[in-house]
Design a protein that fits this description.
With 323 residues, the chain is α+β, with helices and mostly antiparallel strands. It is 17% helix and 33% strand. A hairpin with a 7-residue loop joins β14 and β15. The chain is globular and about 50 Å long.
Length: 323
């Protein structure tokens, strides 16, 4: 039976949920999560939201111990750009070098159950997020605010065949957050109740309906709608971090970052697309749509960059302290 190690990020009394499981020789077969709405009506896997949603799965080796880390992402550009959380994407930075004390092998998985489809590399992750949160990785229950918790990946290769010419995407709502009581749809790959074997072989996608119950800002600027609280739903689970929140017009309006810590409370928090759009513009000089419209390959993070190598070093050192 595998031992669970759950990485949590706390925000306003809630946590999220990048699930990390120890791999052990003996594992149990956990029941797979059904693909359902909050009313338990099956949703077609061919829906536009599901088609654009991916599972980000990494196998980590830390001082000869093996772990699995699983989160969600969403394709936002037809050339294969994925938006997810920084706390999910960080493992894509780490090398998979034989003999290394920390190794990471990451894949982009699609379908239900999730199967390896693509490789990917980071093209943007806020250095501020790493600076403020990297020390938390070594703790039993890491915490964070959700601020700057976003990243962009680029699909770079295929696990089995050539890359598609066009990837399915979701349109982005970067101007309007919406209002309280607005209905939304949440999609992700929940890992709740799954062990190491289950995450690897039986992870399924889930879509749930919810509504916005609260809108807040990270700053004192009350006109800035940075984060929304979402009503309890079937999507309130570990592993949904990085999943899309979609408004009634079919556009992505927010990115799931965190969930409630209270028992039986399945409320989620999500940072808004207007917030992400503003922060990327502050970091790069370009708003989100303009940033992802250029030459993606020139943006890929490499260890040749001092900033990137510093981030890799910080994440690696923190993971080495993990027990």
């Amino acid at each position: 039976m595998s031992l669970r190690s759950l990485t949590r990020y706390t925000f306003f009394g809630i946590t999220t949920a990048l699930l990390i499981l120890y791999a052990t020789p003996q594992t149990t077969h956990a029941a797979s999560v059904r693909f359902v709405t909050s009313s338990e009506v099956p949703v077609e896997i061919s829906s536009p939201i599901a088609n654009a949603t991916v599972n980000l799965y990494c196998t980590l080796t830390i001082k000869k111990k093996k772990f699995a880390a699983s989160g969600t992402g969403v394709i936002i550009d037809s050339r294969g750009v994925i938006l997810t959380n920084a706390h999910v994407a960080q493992f894509f930075l780490l090398p998979n070098e034989k003999g290394g004390k920390v190794r990471s092998e990451c894949t982009v998985r699609t379908g239900s159950p999730a199967k390896a489809a693509y490789t990917a590399s980071i093209i943007h992750m806020p250095p501020l997020w790493v600076e403020k949160n990297v020390a938390e990785l070594s703790k039993k229950k890491p915490k964070g605010t959700g601020e700057d918790d976003f990243a962009l990946l680029l699909i770079t290769g295929s696990a089995s065949s050539t890359l598609p010419q066009i990837f399915p995407t979701l349109p982005l709502e970067t101007m309007n957050t919406g209002s309280e009581k607005d209905a939304v749809t949440i999609t992700g790959y929940p890992t709740e109740k799954l062990d190491f074997y289950g995450i690897n072989k039986k992870l399924t996608i889930l879509t749930a309906t919810s509504s916005i119950t609260n809108i807040r800002s990270f700053s004192n600027d009350t006109s800035s709608a940075d984060v929304v609280t979402l009503e309890d739903s079937k999507a309130g689970s570990s592993g949904v971090s990085g999943g899309p929140v979609v408004n009634q017009t079919g556009s992505m309006s927010a990115l799931v970052t965190s969930k409630s810590t209270a028992k039986n409370d399945r409320a989620l928090r999500a940072i808004t697309l207007p917030y992400i759009n503003r922060r990327i513009a502050e970091d790069t000089g370009y708003p989100l749509r303009d940033f992802i419209s250029g030459d993606h390959t020139s943006l890929i993070y490499t260890s040749d960059s001092k900033q990137v190598s510093d981030m890799i070093y910080s994440i690696t050192q923190s993971l080495l302290k993990k027990r």
